[in-house]
Design goal:
With about 130 residues, this protein is α+β, with helices and mostly antiparallel strands. The chain has 3 helices and 6 strands. The chain has a 6-stranded mixed sheet. The chain is globular. The two termini are about 25 Å apart.
Amino acid sequence: MKSVVGINIKVEGIHNFPQVEEVFGKEVNYLKYDHRHLFGIQAEYEVTDLDREVEFIMMSHEVKKYLTENYWSTAHQCCYFGAMSCEMIAKELMDRFGFSMVKVDEDGENYARLTREGGENLLKGEENL
């Protein structure tokens, strides 16, 4: 049996894709400009104890705090991710928190999902949780 705990949070943010036209052509060239999304972040952490080693409420607080501390834009009054894709945001969160899976969606529509190979967890900053 495999057991995971997970979080689902929403983060208002702005990003862009400067090379979109070179990569995908004119159809979506508007993505090169800053545009706003309500990013949905779903993340999972594998646990071995059915009484959970990680408190998911505290984990969601830590992820929100991390994003605010690193990406908050006073000018935009939300997170500013620059040229980061959903995949890049997911990878950063996976690396920082040791999640086994991270999914980042744009407005509940399209998404990127990363899964750690072998299910290994590398929870970082666990002493803060």
